[in-house]
Amino acid sequence: MSEKKPSTNSINKLLDGRELVLVSNRGPVTFERNSNGERIAKRGAGGLVTALDSALASASTLWVASALSPEDRAVAAEGHPFTWPPEDPRYQVSLVDIEPGPYDLYYNEISNKILWFLQHYLFNPVKQPSIGPADRVAWESGYRYVNQLFADKITSVIEDEPEPVVMVQDYHLYLACGLVRRIRPDVHLLHFTHIPWPAADYFRLIPAKWRREILESMLACDVVGFHSQRYSRNFMECCRDFLGAKVVNRGQRVIFGDREVAVRTYPISIDSRELIAHKRRQSVAKWRTKIEEQRGHCRLIVRVDRAELSKNLVRGFAAYRLLLQEHPEHKEQVKFLAFAYPTRQEIPEYGEYRAEIEAAAAAINKEFGSTDWRPVELEIEDNFDRAVAAMTTYDVLLTNPIFDGMNLVAKEAAVLNERDGVIVLSENAGAYEELRDGVLGTNPFDIEETMERLHQALVMTPLEREARAARVKEIVLRNDALKWLKHQVADLLKKRTPRNDRRDGAKTPSLR
Amino acid sequence: MSEKKPSTNSINKLLDGRELVLVSNRGPVTFERNSNGERIAKRGAGGLVTALDSALASASTLWVASALSPEDRAVAAEGHPFTWPPEDPRYQVSLVDIEPGPYDLYYNEISNKILWFLQHYLFNPVKQPSIGPADRVAWESGYRYVNQLFADKITSVIEDEPEPVVMVQDYHLYLACGLVRRIRPDVHLLHFTHIPWPAADYFRLIPAKWRREILESMLACDVVGFHSQRYSRNFMECCRDFLGAKVVNRGQRVIFGDREVAVRTYPISIDSRELIAHKRRQSVAKWRTKIEEQRGHCRLIVRVDRAELSKNLVRGFAAYRLLLQEHPEHKEQVKFLAFAYPTRQEIPEYGEYRAEIEAAAAAINKEFGSTDWRPVELEIEDNFDRAVAAMTTYDVLLTNPIFDGMNLVAKEAAVLNERDGVIVLSENAGAYEELRDGVLGTNPFDIEETMERLHQALVMTPLEREARAARVKEIVLRNDALKWLKHQVADLLKKRTPRNDRRDGAKTPSLR
Predict the structure, then answer these.
(1) ipTM value of the model?
(2) Which member of B21, B318, B350, B370 has the greatest number of CB atoms within 10 A?
(3) Chain A residues with beta carbon closer than 8 angstroms to that of B234
């Protein structure tokens, strides 16, 4: 590693006694009752939780998250934070109690069916979205209401803290920022978006009032963070087009009213140490053996994704099919192992997409398979151990999302792989900006280019494979999740401009 | 009219003896053989042809266009330009002979199924586009090949002209520009795009090679023109992202290699005089009588569009339906006359969309209609006289495209209407930038806002209606099609910077 790893001590030093409050929809733990009626804790999953959890080791941290289960709501009703995790208490957790009705509107109707689609370009604009009265209700009684509950919780936990540091995570919680600033002009406030930020033209697919409300609230922060330059730029163009805000300092700041807000790029990363430790587990070894049996004499193309509309599995299979057609020399010499976690099956588009994935895989096996060779193995199942095993042993990793906030799989794979595997990565994944020197980039809409990149990866010289794999690994190891957090805290606590120093209690004009 | 109308003489003065060559896919005339075997001429249709035709009165103009019919090809084979129109010879026409196979690839496969969808955000990116080998063939043997035929024709007709002025129109002919520049470094070359230009993120839906080829060719021009600031800005962002070009002079110029290209906004307009003359025809009067019968005592909401995916007819009906639900006082007091021209029925999406339009209209009539009142009259037929009649007499015009290059209907309607009708116009139509002070703008994806705008238009005071109608009409009359052309010629013939003066025969570096 070319740079010294920042220690949590250095974050504590930056904080200088201030409390750090981290806010996200999903927290690091959710509770249930077992059959004996005892409360049991289940660790939260998902890239965001993993990344944040690994970055938090400071005793002065409090994590605010939704109560997801009935038992979480019981914990929330007890009214005081608890320490987490039990075996290695590192931070406090406080849960926000939310009624199931509003939570459904906030989480499913607005966050996942509208904002997620909007920010990944997943709509078919000829038909969607078509915003009507039910969506307005979902916005007002769901999204805005739950954001208000979060804001109430945040202002309550920071009540006695002078100049607290509050870091709000992701697209579920855009509106909480403005609501917190209104009560606490002195807060050091940051919002970080973990998914893409779309171009201003495309941001027009939601109602004008929502656009303003989201952007004005985000500009109540001191720092607004994204994974890539492209998202930062799109965000600033939205501020310009929809608020008339001014972009200055070579696109590092937005001026709106008398606020001046830093817009910064912080590519998130992974906890490499923990991941490598996980690789050594017995539960992974079992899958490694199984995958080596599947490999036989072949080389392995691997993909690991949620079965998400944005992940582009169907076009990935189309590229593989074209490879077998245009380069028949790979027949019987290569296998495609695709591991997909089921996701959001309650949304009809996801169910349909899963069926298309299965049909595409089956069609290739039917067209090209023989008694000795099954060209595609598709497993739709949530199995992290098997995914880790596959990532240690791919020759080529294909990750070709149409648009993707970061794509942590590319980073995890680079750290885990033991065969100088080549990564074929979509140019529309946030990680591409960081990793472009080591990966093979592809246009995810271009089947032919993706096919060519797979071929290029398969015929690459060992020397080039080694150099590329080392390059990507080095970049990932250098920028870990702790560093991601530290840079944000550092920017947040940089000397404020007089423009934004509201310790006098003046209100944010945009929120009056 | 607040400004003096530019005369064609002033364009001739600007040209100063140079030949003006106008290039578009569709020309002002197409030929057939009648049953006696005689050649007969049919006038070309469509907004582009109408606008250009009205702007051209200079004897030194030559219009280059595709031979569309077998008889056009026979005319093209005769090898010399002809004078047009016969009753008022104003310019020369030269047709490009193109074999049907390549023409189909160029026109249907690339221009209409890919570029049109791309530039209007009509794709569903989860599934489309999915660029494979057939698309590459269509690009190379269709689009690029036909652009080469156009370039050959252009260089041949300007062969003996010093410093000719060549104006290439629209998305069919991006590549012709670079090919012409390569042969004729001294040409004054302009490309004008009549449809939207999408955001850089969305331009990524086509292959990297196509992106570069299109942009490099366009930057072989001296001036690149668009209908709106938004499109100009999106284009420059594409030049920056995909070519590494530099945007300077507050976004009025792009520097690429040693070329410096002006990027300008020229909102196209209509020939108001001809349109008003058309309104007085007997064939229109007949339809006015019919429409007044349909009106009865009601007020009329009118729309006039092609039945195009981008025109958003289904959401328009959804907004009307919501209006009748939320404001039942309009029941039996208002009628919605929707006139849609059939279009591109050979593309499956268009056939499906037409069926959805018909179903939406029928559902409203079923839900709200009575023996005395039919809330929607939908006519899917190409009938310009009826459209003109409807535009004279609407109380509210609804034109809510999801994205639309200009939307000439709004301008035509403003000039024709005799009832101080209110125009509800999509904020994503190019015309919105010009007309925003007079129209009621709406977000085309927001059914509720569109409904509110319809209601607002219906309850508006006569004084406000009159002021708005006058404002829009004044803007349209001030900026006619001739002015649109003149501004482009003027910018094209402005003193060249030394950077772009290639009369020494140096080649464009980007095309080497």
Answers:
(1) 0.93
(2) B21
(3) 201
Distance of CA B122 to the CA centre of its chain: 16
Check whether the bond before A348 is cis (ω within 30° of 0). Answer: no
A467–chain B Cβ distance below 8 A for any pair:
no
Closest CA to B348 of B111, B114, B113: B113
Query: DSSP class of residue A309?
Result: G
Across chain A, mean pLDDT equals 92
Closest by CA position to A256, among listed A239, A235, A238, A237:
A239
What was the pLDDT predicted at A202?
Answer: 98
Q: CB contacts < 8 Å between A and B, how many?
A: 123
Which residues have a Cβ under 8 Å from the Cβ of A10 and sit 6 or more positions away? A486
**β-pairing verdict for A253-256 and A259-265:** antiparallel
Nearest CA in chain A to B314: A127
- Contact assignment for A204 to B428 by CB distance below 8 Å: yes
Contacts of B4 (CB under 8 A, 6+ apart): none
Measured CA to CA in angstroms, residue A104 lies from A71, A224, A377 at distances of: 17, 27, 35
To test the contact with chain A by mutation, choose from B226, B229, B446, B453 the residue with the greatest count of A C-beta atoms within 10 A, namely: B446
Q: Do B121 and A124 touch (CB under 8 A)?
A: no
Which of the four pLDDT bands, split at 50, 70 and 90, describes residue A7? low
Q: What are the pLDDT digits (tens) for A57-101?
A: 655 789 999 999 999 999 999 989 999 888 888 889 999 999 999
Evaluate the omega torsion of the peptide bond into residue B85 and state whether it is cis, within 30 degrees of 0: yes
Question: Is B450 part of the contact surface with chain A (CB cutoff 8 Å)?
Answer: no
Q: Chain B residue closest to A205 (CA)? A: B445
Q: From CA A108, how far away is CA A99, in angstroms rounded? A: 14
Q: Per the CB < 8 Å rule, is B448 touching A349?
A: no
Find the CB nearest A130 among B318, B353, B428: B318
The Cβ of residue A34 has, within 10 Å, a number of other Cβ atoms equal to: 8
**Which residue on chain A is closest to B210 by alpha carbon?**
A446
Write the burial class of residue A503 (CB in 10 Å: 0-12 exposed, 13-18 middle, 19+ buried): exposed
Residue in B with minimal Cα distance to A449: B207
First to last CA, chain B: 48
- Out of A125, A315, A449, closest to residue B402 by CB: A125
- How many angstroms separate the CA of residue A252 from the nearest CA in chain B? 17
Least confident stretch, A481-495, B36-50, B298-312: B36-50
B244-253 long-range Cβ contacts below 8 angstroms, 24+ apart: B245/B215, B245/B219
Q: In chain A, what are the helix, strand and coil shares in percent, each to the nearest 5?
A: 50, 20, 35
Spatial separation of the C-alpha atoms in residues A429 and A435, rounded to whole Å: 10
Residue B355: helix, strand or coil by DSSP?
helix
Q: Which of A162-171, B5-14, B243-252 has the highest mean pLDDT?
A: A162-171
What is the DSSP pairing of strand A91-96 with strand A82-84? antiparallel
- Whether B127 and chain A come into contact, CB under 8 Å, resolves to yes
Min Cα distance A507 → chain B (Å) is: 30
Interface contact B129, partner A, CB < 8 A: yes
Which pLDDT score, from 0 to 100, does residue A47 have?
Answer: 65
Residue pair A145/A96 in contact (Cβ under 8 Å)? The answer is no
Task: Check if B250 contacts A (Cβ < 8 Å).
Answer: no
Query: What is the token pair recorded at B71?
Result: 């008889």
Can you give the pLDDT at residue B424?
98
**Can you spell out the DSSP letters for A53-83?**
HHH---TTEEEEEE--SHHHHHHHHH-S-EE
Neighbouring C-alpha atoms within 13 Å toward the C-beta of A155: 16
